[in-house]
Structure formats: structure tokens, C-alpha cells
Amino acid sequence: MENNNISILGAGLIGSLLGIYLKKRGLDVSIFEKRKDKRGQTTREEGRSINMALSDRGWKALEKVGLKNKVKDLAIPMYGRRIHDEHGHTTFIPYGKEGEAIYSISRGKFNEILIDEAEKLGVNLFFDHRCDEVNINKRQIKFSIPGWERKKISSSVIIGADGAYSSLRGSMQKQERFDFTQNYITHGYKELSIPPTADGEFAMDPNALHIWPRGKFMLIALPNPDKSFTCTLFLPFEGTKVCFEKIHDKKDVDSVFRTYFDDAYGMMPHLQEEYFQNPTSALITINCFPWVKNQCLLIGDASHAMVPFYGQGMNCGFEDCFVLDGLIDKFGTTSWDLIFEKFQKMRKPDTDAISQLALENFVEMRDAVSDPKFAIRKKIEARLHELYPKEWIPLYTMVTFSNIPYAEAYAQGKIQERIMDKVMADPLITHKWDKLDYEDIIDQVETARMV
Ligand SMILES: Cc1cc2nc3c(=O)[nH]c(=O)nc-3n(C[C@H](O)[C@H](O)[C@H](O)COP(=O)(O)OP(=O)(O)OC[C@H]3O[C@@H](n4cnc5c(N)ncnc54)[C@H](O)[C@@H]3O)c2cc1C
């Protein structure tokens, strides 16, 4: 059994799902989490999103361990983006084909389900255990436990699922030949809410992700099962006309919301209190390599934290678990070094690609979606996909509604982007988009692929 004693750092979404995967193989799995066991309490997670979008890659990973139906009961389908202009008019742009949706789910409740499931299967759970350091050569972990001396344990395998500020990664960084970068973007975010109406209904269409794109900044809203919406305001920290630094008091909040988000403003009775109570948080991209040293592995945000604009951070982390499990199937549970090596080699190009796409999608969300031509562009791509389902798959569909490796989606998406830029450059495109020579567009893809 020596080789099968596994310690996972972090009982977040990825650590708990990975615990389930590994326990299902009969392995001896322990998860160490720095937070208290907050199951059953409705506390606000500091600086973290309250709800998030779950899509196909995530569902696939949940399905493999039999959790899809349980989770689906908690999730609200969002079939497209509903764009709000400054006058309160809205436009709906579908995400994919009819019936294709991303799903809004509460982070806290979802995490609880995964932890409960891990516990039920027999994973050893240790809350209030903050990993301070990992001795990678000896595979020893040092923990701080409130009211105790420090605790030290040994483990044959250590997996860091402890998020963007991973302690295992910190220990790896002290070793030679470890590459690491972290980049904060110029924007931060703050969470706000739209409560249910007086008669207990959703204040807006619950089956859409609402976006108020305003060029350099934006507001978004995702539905919750209690008929409220969680809104996220993304603003530059400083240096522009509308930025966090320039909002000092309730009057400033009112002024920004009345000017740019007036229809949302009318649905946000607690705006001022929430604005000053809720934290303003930063957004980071983490890039590092290798993810593996001496049977210690980084996974999820610990190895590839990304900005949230493609709604893929968690989905990608779940796909990590799925891929790792596939490699365990192939190589068995005695060759951890081999499995981890294969894993990082396979995953790194994909996680690099989705991190980059997430950065690029910020511009699309906050700016491009408000251009009337954006809706036309999406319609042309949808038509191409309908006519040539294999030859043209819109990038959003490849990322969100398929399991095509992210790196492949990225490369194919760039080819399609160049072709679509040319198509959209026609000044009459708004009038003639449905009469285009679609076959010719597909021929251009074929040619570009051969170059
Ligand atoms: C605003 C925002 C919106 C997002 N929206 C989406 C979305 O719509 N869809 C999507 O797919 N992704 C989304 N993401 C990304 C998603 O939140 C992350 O990718 C996901 O939470 C990563 O999970 P994780 O388990 O790797 O890390 P985390 O969720 O960070 O979990 C890490 C866990 O480790 C614990 N921990 C940390 N340090 C230690 C330590 N030293 N010792 C022990 N335990 C420790 C933490 O307490 C935590 O429980 C969003 C992110 C943000 C910021």
C-alpha cells in the first residue's frame, strides 16, 4: 500500500473531485484543507465568485464518477448571452445550437456536494490544516493547525490542488529549474446582487447570462436557484474615467450605475451597502512548469490559474481530473512518476491555450458583444456550423460544448477568426449575410489548414 498513500492539498472544487476519482480506485486518500468545515453554513467565500458557469468538460468529468444528475438538480441552464445596452434594450445571442447551454451553479453548494461525496466514499478529510511547506525530496508536509503545534506527515504521493496561491507550488519554486510567472490584469471585480422581485420571481430572464458591455468595463449577472442574480462588476482598478479608485462614496456608485447600468440599477436595492461591504478582488494568470517533482503534482488553479472570461477555470480543472484518471487506467497505480510526466506533457499545451483564450475573451465580453455586427458574425458562424458541422465549429462551441483539446480549438479558432474578419470587412455584410457563398468560406478553411 506504500505507493498508494495519497495526500491532496485543498478541498476546493478540484481537490474534492480528484479525491472522489482516486478513492473510487480503492486508494488511500486524504485531503487537507486550510479552511474550517463550513458545510451547512451559508457563508460568503472571501473574494471568490458565488456562482459560476459549468459546461461540457465539467459535466463529462462529473458523469464519470456518477455525479452528473445530482449536480444538475442545482444548476440553471443559460442558453445565451443577453446583452443590455445603455438604454435598457436587450438582445439575446445564443451560445450554441438550440438546447446547448452553460449552467449557473453556486460555488459553495457545489463544493459541499463534492466534499460530502468524497467523505461518503471514505476519503479522510482534515479541515483547519493549512499546508505551510512541502519537503519535496522527502515527501513530507508541514501543516499549521489552530491551537496546535505544527504537524508533519509523510506521504507517497502529494497533489497540490490548493489554488492560485498553492503552497506546494511555493515549495517547488524553491527548487532549481522551475519556471513561474504570475500576471495580474488591470481590472478587478466586485460581486453585487439583484434580489427576487416583490412577488418572489426572477427580475430578469433566468436562462441567460446577462452582460452590460461598456467598452473598458462591464457588469454581468448569473441566475441563482433562490431567484436572485449574482452580478459581477469588472472595472479597471485605476487610471480611467470609470474605475474602482474613483468610486469613493454612495453618490459615486449611484452616478456610475445610473449612467452606465440604469436598468440594472433599478433592480439593485442593496447596491450601495453591497458595494462598500463586498471586497474588490484581483484577477490573475499563473503559468508554471514543471508541474511534477518526485511524485508531487500540481493540478487545477495551482498549476494554471486563469482569468474567468471564458468560464473555464473550474471546467479545465475538472478535465485535469478526467485526463489524469484516464492515464491511471492505462498505466496502473504503481507508476506515479510516469503518469504525472505523461499528464503534464499532455495538459500543458491545452491549459496554455485556454489561459490565453480567457484573456482574449475579456475584450469580446466587455466590448465586441455590444457591436451589432457581433450578432451577425455569430449568425454566420452558426449557419456555417449548421451547413458544415465538421468543417466549421465556432470557437466558443469547441471550448464550451465539446472535448476538443483546448490547443486544437485555439489553432482552429485562429484560422476561422482570420476568415471571419475578412467576411465581416464587407460594409454590406449586415444586409447580405444570409446570401453569402458559404461553400467558398469552407474552401478557405481547407486552404488555410494546408498552409
Ligand atoms: C470571479 C471568478 C469567476 C469564475 N467563474 C468561473 C466559471 O464561471 N466557470 C469556471 O469553470 N471557472 C470559473 N472560475 C475559475 C474557478 O473559480 C477556479 O478555476 C476553480 O475554483 C479552481 O479550483 P481549485 O480547486 O483548483 O482551486 P480553489 O477553488 O482555489 O481551491 C483551492 C482550495 O485549497 C485550499 N487551500 C489553499 N491554500 C491551502 C493550503 N496552504 N493548505 C491547505 N489548503 C489550502 C483553499 O482554501 C481552497 O479550498 C472563476 C474564477 C473567478 C475568480
Key terms:
single chain; 451 residues; alpha/beta; FAD/NAD(P)-binding domain; 19 strands; globular; binds flavin-adenine dinucleotide; FAD binding; flavoprotein; EC 1.14.13.9; Kynurenine 3-monooxygenase; transmembrane helix
Structure, described:
It contains 16 helices and 19 strands. A hairpin with a 5-residue loop joins strand 15 (218-223) and strand 16 (229-236). The protein folds into 3 domains: 2-80 and 104-182 and 285-361, FAD/NAD(P)-binding domain (3-Layer(bba) Sandwich), CATH 3.50.50.60; 186-282; 371-450, no CATH class. The protein starts with a strand and ends with a helix. Helix 1 (13-23) runs parallel beside helix 10 and helix 10 runs antiparallel to helix 11 (336-366). The chain has helices at residues 13-23, 56-64, 68-72, 107-121, 167-173, 250-260, 262-265, 271-277, 301-304, 313-331, 336-366, 372-387, 395-400, 406-424, 429-432, 438-450, and strands at residues 5-9, 28-32, 51-54, 76-78, 80-84, 90-94, 102-106, 124-126, 130-135, 140-144, 151-154, 157-160, 179-194, 209-213, 218-223, 229-236, 280-289, 292-293, 296-298. It binds flavin-adenine dinucleotide. It comes from Anditalea andensis. This is Kynurenine 3-monooxygenase. The chain crosses the membrane at residues 6-22.
